[in-house]
Description:
- The complex is a heterodimer of chains A (80) and B (415).
- By secondary structure, chain A is of the alpha+beta class.
- Chain A has helices at 19-26, 53-65, and strands at residues 2-10, 29-38, 43-51, 69-72, 78-79.
- In chain A, 26% of the residues lie in helices and 42% in strands.
- Chain A starts with a strand and ends with a strand.
- The mean pLDDT of chain A is 92.
- In chain B, the strands form three sheets. Chain B has a six-stranded mixed β-sheet, sandwiched between helices. In chain B, strands 8-7-6-9 form a four-stranded parallel β-sheet, with helices on both faces.
- In chain B, α10 (239-253) links the parallel β10 and β11.
- Chains A and B meet through β1, β2, β3, β4 and β5 of A and β6 and α7 of B.
Amino acid sequence: MAVRRVRFTFPEDLIKEPVIYLLGKQFQVITNVRMADVDEHTGWVVLELEGDGAEIDKGIAWAQSRGVRVDPVTGDVVEG
Amino acid sequence: MTAASSLRCRECQREYPLTATHVCEFCFGPVEVAYDYDKIRRNVSRASSQAGPASLWRYHDFLPVDRDAAIDIGAGFTPLIRAKNLGKALGLNNLYIKNDTVNPTWSFKDRVVAVASSRARELGFQKLACASTGNLANSVSAHAAAAGMEAVVFIPHDLEAGKVLGSSIYGPTLVKVQGNYDAVNRLCAELAGSYPWAFVNVNVRPYYSEGSKTLGFEVAEQLGWRAPDHCVVPIASGSLYVKIRKGLDELAKVGLIDEPKTRMSGAQATGCSPVALAWEEGSMNFRPQRPNTIAKSLAIGNPADGYYSLVQLKETNGACGNVSDDEIVAGMKLLAETEGIFGETAGGVTVASVKQLAERGHIHPDELTVAFITGAGFKTVEAVAPHLKPALEIDATIESFEAAYNAARPVEVAV
């Protein structure tokens, strides 16, 4: 089992979509929200994803295809 | 003994021991070093600082490393210069430049890496690692060499030769990673989570970021133990911007300066401006960006301290510059031509932002303002080279020289 800590950033048109629910339903991935800030225009959610590594990758790719930006929870690690 | 007492989550305030960890296990918020300020107050005075070495280690009481464990290659205690010429050009009567181009590897990254590498060695790590497009890689490589540690440095595959050489001279293992910016970022984040190495800006980030406080300490000491009225600081991850103010606050906390009322303003390039855009929109939520700017040392599209930067902008009544690539080049030239300081593109962002903020009335002409120039221009020559006056080419005769020299001089008009 792999664990991935990620930050989802939602554009305005996805705010009403149950993306995290669908991620857990369509893929064998356990989602665990730890921090979030969502308003009517934008929002971010920090969550832990647990499951098979390849399944997590598929789930993340699906979320990205829906328009969610997915980043490591640490922010960018490549610095100038 | 260091006065550092624990790591504390900036969100939920949970405390952790002083190990190599950077995220709260409970809420995934970032952790930072907490200190016993009573202990620091007992140990420090203005005189004790002034008697210390001409490096950032003169402030070792405020850092999370024992003095004896310090890896000191001379980082810090860089000049603070009264910038009369630049100030005159920008309509500012009390402008100073903190010139961090003169650090051992020519950027402020030596401050953060000095602290991170010292703490990493203290924690028993033998390998120092980072993912970088330039300055950080140079500094990690140099500090590892001086500490007798092994350096593993990940760089994008298409990095300019000059930047690669600035690291490879120190003998690290250089790893060129194929792929776009996001792919390199994702891989390095995963590597940092799976290898037992000290990734300076990931698992030892709480110690790393403390190095930036020393800019605040130095500026206050160099001003005669007072805080500036206004600071203008380039924002990449946001850590530098936040920690300079933390440094000023800590000096006040232990009684070395009066309570700072310093306004903290930021500087970003338009091609990577998540904090500047959120500030302009009045939002506390920044939107991550894919960077596209010549200021590559500031090209962090998803800044770890972006939220805390927005909080500080609001709390200190600061403003955030947002400047184009053309303005950055003009800023680099203006700094060089007025003060004799050749800063890199990030310096151009800062100078251009000072200009923009002054023109828009965010900086009062009489405020004691400090602009932070964080890296040397030789790191980014390709950004300005096409915009500079060409050399005169002559034959080896006086006639040839005079003809070329007189033709190139501005025409003097008799009044």
